[in-house]
Every structure is written in C-alpha cells, then in structure tokens.
Amino acid sequence: MELSKDTVTGLFTAIVTPFNARLEVDYDGVKALVKRQIDAGASGIVPIGGTGEYPGLSRAERRAVVAACVEAADGRPVMPGVLSTGFNDAMDAAQDFKDVGAQAVMLVTPYYTTGTQDGIRAYFAKFHKALGLPVLAYEIPRRTTVAIAPETYVKMADDGSIIGMKYSNYDMPAFIEIVRDAGDRLAVLSGEEPLFATHIAQGAVGGVLASATIYPEHWLRVFETARSGDLHGALRLQAEIAPVIDAIYRETNPGPLKSYMKMAGCDVGSVRLPLCPPSDETSALLKSALATFEKASSA
Predict the structure, then answer these.
(1) Does 295 map to a domain?
(2) Does 138 qualify as catalytic in the annotation?
(3) How do residues 182-231 score in pLDDT, each as one tens digit?
(4) Which of 42, 209, 214, 235 has the fewest CB atoms within 10 Å, measured from its CB?
(5) Residue partners of 297: CB distance under 8 A and separation at least 6
C-alpha cells in the first residue's frame, strides 16, 4: 500500500523490542508481538523508536527487527523510527529499513546539534529527496529539546517533504494551529496517551502509542469513540487506563513498560543499558495499576 497523508490513519503501535534472557533480540517474539497487534486491528507498526530501544541496538539488529516486522505485518504498514541525530547515520538506517520493506520512516527532529527552524525544514527536505520513501516527522521535545513550529510544519507540507508527524508534545495551542493550518495536507498522529482522545477530537487522524503494545484493543476503543464525536466517552475510557500510563512512564520508557507486560502475562524480557529494570517503588505502582485496570476493564 502506498502511504500518503490520506492512508496513514488509526492506531500505529510503537512496539517494544523483545529480548531473551541473554538480552539478545528475540525475533520470534518480535513477530508474535506484531501479529498480536495486527489481529487486534492496529493500522500499522512503528518499531525501533524510543520504545524499541533504538540506541541500544546495533545497526544490524535494527535492520533485522524491521525485517521481522515486515514479515509478520501481513501487508500492514511498518514505519520504523529513525533516531540517529546525524544526517548520514540517519540515512544509513533509513536505507536499511527501506531495503527490508518498510513503507515509511518516522524521522526524529535533529537533536544535540539543534538547527534553526529553516535548518530543520531543509534537513527533512533533503532526507526525503535522498531516501525516496514517505517520511513522517517525529517531534518529542522532552527528549530532543527541539520542537517544530506550526508555521514550519506548514512550509514542510508545502515542500512535500513529510506526509505527517507523530506529535509527542503537550503544547495544545501549537497542536491546534498545526491541524488548522496543515491538517488538510499532513496526517497528524498523537504520540501522547494522556492527550490521545483530545488530540483525536481536535483533528488528529490516529496515534502512535507505546502502551498499545500491551493494550491495542483498549486504545482502538478510545480512538473510535473519540472519532465518533463522543469525547466524554473517550475520556472515560482513557481514564480507565490512566493509572497504567502514570506507572509505565514514571521512569524512562520502556523499562517499566516491559516489566508491566511481564506482570500482565506477556514476557518480552528486560532492557539494555543504560536503561534498567524499574525500582521497587515503581514496580509496586505497576502491580497496583495492573490490578486497577483489570478491575475497571472487567466491570
């Protein structure tokens, strides 16, 4: 399927990268996780982002994970994250992903060496032209310290350098401005679970969510409810999972998420350094959140 602004809609799961007991990539686990998402109704898969431990994987491992996702996705879009900060390293990764069948890439805003808005615009334009594959911008200023201004998104839409973005940002006024001025030309995807229903109600066409790795059905219910115009109902469903969200993001993702998944009966292994398993305090909160959510969802 050719990806465009109009075909990138719905729930795209930012999956974890499963490891075995030796912290080697569990490729059968990757395929099982992807199949679980597709069977649940996810629109596509976003591997190898922050949730997928991009910095903790080698180049060969990243490529192999994406290949496993493409194999298991049954034709659904696979849009891997590209988190390398330098243009050439990022291009090497994206070309690897293209070679094994990724339909698009989700390119993080350049960080550490942070460009001006004009520099960011030029970076994405050059990247899209060189790669020859649809590109989505991945904006997450709490990790990168840089955000793309609404007016820059408008210019990038004019350039045709991106078909959309994952908006992991709590700046609602900027979000509303982006949807108003560029939403007719860009697929705006929410990247924030606490704002997901509100983002959909304000014009987002879907989301890229890490916690969908374990609960895709719940987030699909939130999406469909919000898209139908029932924001109150969507927020009520979102409130059910709020304790889980608070707990899994209490420490750096995906350490707590992987621990929570094991508690919930889906063991995907631990994390690689510098990440580490969650503290005892966070683990206790994860257990409590699991019990609370199971009670709420069975009521």
Answers:
(1) no
(2) yes
(3) 999 999 999 999 999 999 999 999 999 999 999 999 999 999 999 999 99
(4) 235
(5) 218, 240
